[in-house]
Amino acid sequence: MTDQIFIGGGGADYAEAQGLLLKYGNRHGLIAGATGTGKTVTLQILAEGFSNAGVPVFLSDVKGDLSGLAASGTEGFKLHEAFMKRAATIGFDDYTYDAFPVTFWDLFGQSGHPVRTTISEMGPLLIARLLELSEAQEGILNIAFRVADEQGLALLDLKDLQALLVFVGQNRGDLTLRYGNISTSSIGAIQRRLLVLENQGGADLFGEPALELSDIIRTAPDGRGQINILAADKLMGAPRLYATFLLWLLSELFEELPEVGDPDKPKLVFFFDEAHLLFEDAPKALVDKVEQVARLIRSKGVGVYFITQNPADVPEDILGQLGNRVQHALRAFTARDRKNLKAAAETYRDNPRFETEDAIREVGVGEAVTSMLIKKGMPGVVERTLIRPPSSQLGPIDDATRATVMAASPVAGKYEAKVDRISAFEKLRARADEAAKTAAIAEAEEENEPSPAVREYKTARRYTASKVGRSSSTSKRQRDGIGDALGKALVSELKGTTGRRLVRGILGGLFKAR
Q: Which of 92, 251, 327, 408 makes an SS bond possible with 369, Cβ 3.0 to 4.6 Å?
């Protein structure tokens, strides 16, 4: 195994050889460029390189093309001659076709093994981001999580969170005194957002068995790193769900992995495709968290590589931490495009042989402007580079091949069956059933032994019946007396337990019907 991943070269106006040093693979990176300029192939060859070096990889397959990593390229492929010519041009003498160890994952459990987390593991900050909650609604969500912790209510799936919010709404009077105002309208808004998430397939993300990080940080029997591919073509229909899941996974890696200092090679490389979705309309608190994770997770041996169309999609504080860069062509049709192109060029270390801005505009498909970290972690001079061809299949595999790969997967059968153990939903339902049973018993006992107010009312009725036939004036006085007695009895009864049960019964019936 060499100490670097060969990326490309070309000679003459191009770099002699460009490689990514494995010991700086956890210093993060950027793959940028307009649509159709070759970002996906660059991601593919980097995944191959890290896998060959024994480094596990996690990436998302947004277009469905990267599943080809599981199959070998073939001489019958229409670009075979072009690939061989490119390999000869850049001096890639040991270029061969090969398949790689791949594990397929899918939030919906269709194109890969199901991948899940729990509501508790994702936490209120990311769920608030996922649901696009306002500040007030996020505050109520934090209260709900606190209540769940205090009362030992496990939050595993969406129905647990929905049941907990109902509980918080029913007890908002007591909780408001402790935590601040809780409005039913805000709770209703959160419930509606949860319903939208459920309709988008978000219910499949939450539950058990939850993903174990050890299942994505593994090597194949031949020593190569396992390439974990998340099927994201359908998931992109819910872009916020996609971005939040990847951010959660990145946060889990940061929280769970031990410190390793400066390893000879990364422990895991994480590719975040369509990175602009992570930062689009993100609150400052979330961007600050991503920046913190990006800054500190390299000490856990994790390299994070953002893939996006324009470097401007990544906040400047995070962009400054991305040491290994592959910049494909950027288009400059508008004044804004030209400004972004100029800004992108200014982030590279100048090469006296050409203007960086011109090079970024002029490179063709399969070419890029590259800058890799060199000695002591310094950024290398910017170079024009012909990207090496991939060894695995270019383009997606068929369904039969995918099924074969999944059947032979080291996690086959581990996550397929969903487990629904006792959690917040079941516990809160049991409490409600017990309360209803207790109320029914109390009501039955009171019917057998009427309260003093009810006895007074019945005595008044008997008195009325015994006096029927008296004079009209006497009857009037009696009716007035009976009315007073009935009114007093009713007021007394409504102040007592029967009255309170009556009101709860009415509201409870409406709630159940709703």
A: 327
